Amino acid sequence: MNTLARTLIVATLVAAHGVAGAGPRYYGPPPYHHHHHHHGAGLGGLVLGLAVAVPLIALASRADPAPEVVYVPPPAPLPPPAPVRPAPVIYPRNGQSDVQREADLRECNRWATTQPAAMADAGVFQRAIEACMDGRGYTLR
Question: Is the pTM of this model over 0.70?
């Protein structure tokens, strides 16, 4: 509960005590009748003070609490990108023609796209093409 709310509650209780105690008072000699006069707030002041203070306490406890401080660590740095390798030079080992080499390269590209992680990692994609072309009789340098 904040300081302002506490101050309001205390001030309200003090004021209510004063209001409840501000009634007629008898300051003369003891009266000769059997009436009893209260000198002070008594139970009425307490009841009035609580009647005013309790709603204030409820309001103050619903006030916005201080924002919770949450520590969020900075994100881990990204790994440096893998160096881009130049496209390999493809040499036919079995006398394949240029037309056959292009057809084989297209088929190996198509197959490489189906390999796990090849579409997310260029290195995986390139190794898949190299393995495919090696299997079809080519040397890559």
Answer: no
